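User: We ran a pulldown and think these components assemble together. Before we commit to crystallization trials, I'd like a predicted model of the whole complex to look at. Sequences follow.
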Amino acid sequence: MFAIVLKEELAPKIKLFKVLAPEIARKAQPGQFIILRIDEEGERIPLTIADFDAAAGTITIIFQEVGKTTDLLGIMEQGDSLLDFVGPLGMESEIENYGTVVCIGGGVGVAPVFPIARALQEAGNTVISIIGARNSELLIWKQEMNQISSKLHVATDDGSAGQKGFVSDVLAEILDSTQVDRIIAIGPVPMMEAVCKVAPESITTMVSLNPIMVDGTGMCGACRVEVNRQTKFACVDGPEFDGHQVNWDLVKMRAKMFVKEEKEALSHRCGEGECQCHRKNEK
Amino acid sequence: MSQEKRKIIPKKHPMPYQDPGVRCSNFEEVALGYSEETAVLEANRCIQCKNSPCIDGCPVGIDIPAFIKMIAERDFAGAISKIKEKNYLPAICGRVCPQESQCEAKCTIGKKNEPVAIGRLERFIADWEMAQDLESTPEITPNGKKVAIVGSGPSGLTTAACLGLKGYQVTVFEALHVAGGVLIYGIPEFRLPKKIVAREIENISRLGVDIRVNAVVGKLNSIDELLEQGYDAVYIGTGAGLPYFMNIPGENLNGVYSANEFLTRNNLMKAYKFPDYLTPIRVGDRVAVIGGGNVAMDSARTALRLGAESNIIYRRTIKEMPARHEEVEHAMEEGVQFEYLASPIEIKGNEEGRVTSIICQKYELGEPDESGRRSPVAIPGEMFEIPVDTVIMAIGQGPNPLVPQTTPDLNTNKWGNIIADAETGATSMKGVYAGGDVVTGAATVILAMGAGKGAAEAIDEYLQGSK
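Assistant: Here's a predicted model for the assembly, 750 residues in total across the polymer chains.
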């Protein structure tokens, strides 16, 4: 069992857990992910590591309540335990001194960008960060990102914080005026795709893919993605790839594999005595 | 009595099975097992011939005539002890070993009649023991040495049991959240109930073996780190868990699963109980399973039980099928359709990216290949299309690369299999042994167990010598 030692609500439906997992915390690197399972009936879901603290033995995860499992996760409290927590999985981010790197996080994607941006800054890069969300309320980790960035840009769809517009719009402006050597972008698929359209192919633009997975160790192949016209397993070959080479249509299509089942799971037992999410939502 | 004994009953006592019409829609075990009476009668078919060729046919060398004699004499406790001298997972082997090509293939009775049903007797006696709650903890004197085992499939578990009994402090590292490897994620409930696997693993834990789940060696620890952390030897039994695809157009459409994914969702994650269990699985109305091995049969029979019409597409004929005959027969009885001499060349989908049909090339049999099986040759221009909602690729698995990738001194061959001595499992690294599918490529449970056993002896010799 893996205890949740800290729970924080960062924004509506966006929560942070610090989970006690000393062995994983000792090995985790930026860019890697964990897989968790809440209980015996639970599914295995991958979440990119938002931070790790070897001394405290904790892994930080940030998630948005978007489906059955993340809803159930959201009602867990500090002191509760997850049944399974496995990692660190996937390849770590490539960290070198590239020069000037733009780190872009959209929505909950700000969380996994943070340790990468920090490592890039520690490696001597000039880190320009762009974080974005639909509105100011949903913007997370602005301070954290500010601390490790030479310059932080903020964009919101409605203009309630920072610049009105998308992170990709901000990127386009930066590219006009600044020599950029590398881009990292993590967030919703449309955001990452938009960033790749704005970024010239000459600049390596790493994205972190989060397809459907089961085991996360290369065993099932559910996480197939096409990179440079070749099939790759995001769990062991990724999760980061150069976004210019990613077949985005396939990424979007494969994410819809279980849309019907996801809806069914959401409504299953909802409103019955055993469904806690219903009661919780009424509070 | 001796007069009667001479008269050989030509056929095995039949195994009672769940009716095909009933079992095709449930996940309960298909074979129900011998009763005591039937087991004793079947045991009496063994003539206790002098040279016991059956023992040579057993990869772990069980004294088969001895345990069968004990069953005939109703000394069931004696019979299970006899088996456990050589095999720690009898309830599993009795169910999934290909006895027809091993011990039973060599049976003297089998020359003119059906061989003695050794596998069914092994299963009977293992189940008998479980029902009695007789499992005991043997007295073990710890020898102070530590061995790490990577992977908790049949090979790793066997090595763990052998070394545990010898007094080693054994830790098994399992990447998934349940121990058992392919016995848990791969082989379906209806062929190998998971409570049987759990029970056999409990027996191994009782030897003092520490099984750690959620521990991905290659990520959490490398092999070198395990050695640095004070393990005196390491055994790698990581199996063949990397699914192969065909590299044909349409293979990444929604509705194309690797057999590994399909079976893992169902067996490990219990998707057949969705939405009580949260892992989904979708089969649609019609499923095509590509391949002719046991994994293909398991996939096709699982799809059937999930309510789909299930088709096996195999590029040779039933004669060349690598699956156990019994599994093919069970699949047919349950209503799985077989399309021989055909192989997909393209999978088609709709605008949403979902599978709608599969296009196959027709084949005929040509000259025998290296395996001795006649190889399929495409018949130019002969193609056909079958409408399907799901395609399951069961064309084989390769070794998982996580361990070799992070262990630079470990030699592998061009397919990524670890190079290890066939008898001892010794690898290119001192103190590191390997066996089972990660060395041989996808094979059987019992061969993996045989390799584990050989490696346990070699590890013991190595560590006792290094005292």
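Residues 110-122 of chain A form the longest helix (13 residues). That may be worth checking against your pulldown data before setting up trials.

User: Thanks, that helps.
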